[in-house]
Amino acid sequence: MFNKDFYINAVHLFALAVLICFCVFVCDVYLDTLVITKQGWIRGFRASDGNYVKYMGIPYATVSKENPFGESTPFPKLKGVFQANKNRIMCPQVDMLSLQYVGTLNCLRLNVFVPYTKVSKPVMVFIHGGRFTLGFTGTFQGTHFHGPRYFMKHDVILVTISYRLGPYGFFCLDSPEVPGNQGINDVIKALMWVKENIHAFGGDTNKITVFGHSAGSMITDLLLYTKAEKYIDQAILQSGTAHAADVLWNVNNSVPLIISKHLGLETNDLKEALSFLKSRSTQDVVVAAKNLSIEFRPCIEKRFETYDGLINKDPFNTKPSVKNKRIILGHTTEEYNMKLQKPIQYFKDNDVFDNMLEYEFDFNNEKGKEAVSSVRHFYIGDNEVNEDLKWKIVNFTSDITFNYPAYRDMDKFIENGAEKVYYYIFAYTSSSNLYKKLLNISVGRSIHGDELAYLFETNTIPPLSASDIIIMERMTTMWTNFAKYGNPTPNKTEMLPVQWLPISKDSRNYLLIDLDEEMGEDLYKDRIDFWDTFYETYKQFMRPNKTFVNLLL
Question: Transmembrane region positions (predicted)?
Fold first, then answer.
């Protein structure tokens, strides 16, 4: 017999059960993406492309409206719940692909990507490159270069940061208000934020690996020579060191005067020029610097009564604070391959040897001719530059900018107590090599930036091939193993068939990263020996540091 009351009660119980399940699901979504940090409440969102949570656009510092060229300050406490769901904020720059001005000074943001597990995780903080004038880690006009998905399967937390660029990040002036290296100080603020807050996301504050590419790698390395090294437990330096010839430049008061003149104010008064530039839009200032071909770099700052400075000495004459730290560093096989795209007439009209040496040496006429002649003879003999010799010029430009500085760096690390130093050369090449794809380069092997597509997901290249996936899995496994264990290959596996040996005082071991991996020793030995002798012979002519004028060629 049908029991109406029983049926109604059953329906009510079923509806209640559905409601409870729905509430549990909704609460689970919100609770799992909501964190309470020292800065305040932050809500992220679950990723659609994997089992992890994204916290996008978290503000870590703020720029003064009165002095946008000066040092930033930590962002104040958040009001209410911060919705961390925007990753389209960029620091002022002229975008590399569209050549459009983009950005805002409200750009000191970071992104946190957290695998959906409940254990404490190592933290990896990435600093992007871009010659200190461009770059971002978010999405612009649908394009992204630093998607986190490849890292997430390895159970680490990934943090990517933005910092000020160009004139707003790297004006270096004889003024306590704008002493220089503002962009690097932004990075330090971000690392402080990570140290203070990442535990709220499940991060291990004693396992923070900072890694960067190109300018980001140079910044990471420079920090190892400062008091900010305390925020770095381990480091990975990809194609950039503090010893590169064009990293540190001089304080230069003429730069604001030149930009001001371009924008309509001719003055020799630095304060007047700065006041004028503060009144102009960021677009005016950034585009003017771009049109004037002014480049920006970190600098050796002057000391002031109210400001002691971040970088006061050239790393060449300083000891890095790396005792008990572990470091990976390396580069690609042909960093400066893009020079091959130049027509042969370019090499005939421009003395590449003289121009590159001028970055770091201030020769008199007699010694300059002798030095340049010795370098030219070593690389191309007494031959005139021709198509066949362009490869050797690529070797020269790669050696002086990337390869030899890496050797100088690793030797300093070992001499000053680094626990382990691992050296690599990235040799793999395919249609997915990032910069070769972006620059439409079809000859040679891997060039500057090519390894990035095998660490970060990007929509600027086709889907990875089977071989590409092997390299991606191999690199992300080694990088995250290093973050977890301080050793990129703690065990041999099918994916990691070669044990990566660290260097020592007696052996400069390196890992060749390719489909057929192998260990080697004394990479480019004859070329490195040549530069050891060259620097010893001409060290008295080394510039203490440089200015942008040297590069306006």
Answer: 6-31
Residue 140: its pLDDT value, please?
66
CB 212 within 8 A of CB 177: no
Fold of the domain spanning 34-505+517-541? Rossmann fold (3.40.50)
Q: In whole angstroms, what is the distance from residue 260 CA to residue 86 CA?
A: 34
**Among positive and negative, which fits the CA dihedral 428, 434, 435, 439?**
positive
Measure the CA–CA gap between 47 and 28, rounded to whole angstroms: 15
Q: Considering the chain, what is the average pLDDT of its residues?
A: 89
- Please name which of 208, 7, 58 lies closest in space to residue 123, comparing C-alpha atoms: 208
Rounded Cα–Cα distance for residues 98 and 141 (Å): 9
Residues 100-133 as b or e (16 or more Cβ within 10 Å = b): ebbbebebbbbbbbbbeeeeebbbbbbbbbbbbb
What torsion, rounded to 10 degrees, do the Cα atoms 103, 104, 106, 107 define? Answer: 20
Average pLDDT value for residue range 222-244: 96
Angle 235-307-126 from CA coordinates, rounded to 5°: 20
* Angle at the Cα of 265 from the Cα atoms of 261 and 271, rounded to 5 degrees: 95
Q: For residue range 267-300, list pLDDT tens digits in order.
A: 999 999 999 999 999 999 999 999 999 999 999 9
Q: Please name the residue that has the structure tokens 């809500």.
A: 43
Instruction: Report the sign of the C-alpha dihedral through residues 85, 88, 90, 96, in that order.
Output: positive
Domain ranges, ordered by start, for the chain = 34-505+517-541
Two structure tokens written together for 418: 């680094």
Structure tokens that stand for 456 in this block = 């970060």
In whole angstroms, give the CA distance from residue 425 to residue 332.
Answer: 5
Mind listing the pLDDT tens digit for each residue in 79-112? 999 999 988 899 999 988 788 999 999 999 999 9
C-alpha angle with apex 190: 185 to 194, nearest 5 degrees?
145
Angle at 232 between CA 327 and CA 35, to 5 degrees: 130
